[in-house]
């Protein structure tokens, strides 16, 4: 019988220790005085649900931002390809101009 009483005493001490730790982790609000085990566990459950909701929203936002990043990356790549085309067209035009400038230079000297 005394062994059983000692084990029960240790179990209750362990339970009190765990509840004290939980009290330190759960925001208790303005009424941070004495709480029953039930009220503490209820607040802990609500706090966990709130954290899970925040995590879901954060993950959703991360997914949205990743989609936006991929979209912007595709636009950037597309603009890079267009720039290469524009640069190549511009260099073609400048070489045509320089060829025509060379062809016209003797005329300038004849005036």
UniProtKB/TrEMBL annotation:
Instruction: Give the transmembrane ranges.
Output: none
* CDD domains found in the cross-reference section: bHLHzip_Mad
Q: Which UniProt keywords apply?
A: Coiled coil, DNA-binding, Nucleus, Transcription, Transcription regulation
Ranges of residues in domain BHLH: 1-51
State one molecular function term (GO).
Answer: protein dimerization activity
Q: Which Pfam families does this entry report, sorted A to Z? A: HLH
Q: Where is this region: Disordered?
A: 92-111
Q: What is this protein called?
A: MAD1 protein
Organism, by scientific name, is: Rhabdornis inornatus
What taxonomic ancestry is recorded?
Eukaryota, Metazoa, Chordata, Craniata, Vertebrata
């Amino acid at each position: 019988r005394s062994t059983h009483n000692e084990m029960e005493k240790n179990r209750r001490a362990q339970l009190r220790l765990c509840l004290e730790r939980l009290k330190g982790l759960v925001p208790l609000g303005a009424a941070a005085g004495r709480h029953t085990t039930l009220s503490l566990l209820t607040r802990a459950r609500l706090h966990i649900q709130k954290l899970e909701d925040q995590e879901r929203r954060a993950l959703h936002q991360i997914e949205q931002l990743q989609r936006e990043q991929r979209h912007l990356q595709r636009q950037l790549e597309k603009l890079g390809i267009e720039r290469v085309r524009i640069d190549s067209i511009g260099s073609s035009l400048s070489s045509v101009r320089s060829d025509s400038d060379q062809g016209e230079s003797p005329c300038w000297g004849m005036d």
